[in-house]
Design a protein that fits this description.
about 290 residues; mainly beta; Immunoglobulin-like; 3 domains; seven-stranded mixed sheet; four-stranded antiparallel sheet; 2 helices; 20 strands; about 10% helix; elongated
Length: about 290
């Protein structure tokens, strides 16, 4: 004579699954205390589920119109923890060839490129990033948190795809007329993951300096090394792409100076990187090119 119960949390559905097994002659004591267990389960659900929701974001209901706000994400930096929130304004219906179609629910579905390829992920204020449309409001609101630690540089737009289910709203409820969803909206959000957010000067090369800076033509790079090193010197744009290979050579210990031209570079901000090919250590210095 025994009874058993099993409790598990389904993260995909953000809900608890409870399985209770009783034999043909259940234990009277357990049956008597069933209400206690149900109450305890409810308390655990509320506390745990509430804590999950508190970890995400709170929608900004003052967003002015359809779209994602802000219109671009703040810069991220390679290897540095990142977190930023986008607020969404989503319509209750759409018009196609003169006919109005009601939306029953939305799902913030995916991104292009997939954020995981950049070392990032997105989470929403609603479970599964799905939103039931409130037809009493011209705009519905939600928010998305982009977070993680960037693993590669990026300088483009993230495309966010929002899928929707079409139905009929009768003034009280919305009935889905098509079980399939379609990509109703897509938003392009400019985003950059940069090489560095600071000047990095490794002790490997002493103090790295550039003169003149800002520069319009020739620049002199000064650094110092303590032992024989195979060194690569490069100019990078702010996305981390090499735009000029200055020199790759073996340098003897002591003070070094390398002169190079910026004539082929467009105006703007760059990073000059001094990289040891022997141990991977590097120093970077900002360089401003002006004409």
């Amino acid at each position: 004579m025994y009874s058993s119960h099993h409790l598990a949390f389904d993260r995909n559905k953000n809900s608890f699954l409870c399985k209770l097994t009783l034999n043909a002659n259940p234990n009277p004591y357990l049956m008597k205390n069933m209400n206690y267990w149900r109450s305890l389960l409810f308390v655990v659900f509320v506390v745990f589920f509430g804590s999950l929701q508190a970890q995400v974001c709170e929608p900004d209901t003052t967003v002015p119109s359809l779209g994602l706000f802000p219109s671009s994400l703040p810069d991220g930096f390679l290897g540095s923890p990142y977190s930023s929130t986008l607020n969404a304004g989503l319509p209750r219906d759409t018009t196609i060839i003169g006919q109005v179609f009601d939306f029953c629910f939305y799902r913030i579905d995916s991104t292009q490129p997939n954020l995981s390829t950049l070392g990032l992920q997105f989470d929403c204020d609603q479970p599964g990033c799905q939103y039931t449309v409130d037809h009493s409001k011209p705009l519905n609101f939600g928010c998305v948190v982009v977070s993680g630690t960037p693993t590669q540089t990026f300088n483009d737009s993230i495309v966010v795809f929002v899928k929707a289910a079409i139905g009929n709203f009768d003034g009280t409820s919305c009935t889905v007329t098509d079980s399939t969803t379609f990509e109703a909206l897509e938003f392009k959000v400019p985003f950059r993951i940069l090489l560095s957010n600071s000047i990095s000067n490794s002790a490997e090369f002493g103090t790295v300096s550039l003169m003149p800076n800002p520069a319009s033509d020739l620049v002199q790079l000064d650094f110092e090394i303590r032992e024989v090193q195979n060194v690569a010197i490069e100019v990078l744009d702010l996305s981390g792409k090499t735009v000029k290979a200055v020199r790759q050579a073996t340098f003897l210990p002591g003070k070094q100076n390398v002169e190079f031209s910026t004539g082929e570079l467009a105006e703007g901000l760059y990073m000059v990187r001094v990289l040891s090919l022997d141990n991977g250590r590097m120093s970077t210095q900002k360089l401003m090119v002006r004409r």
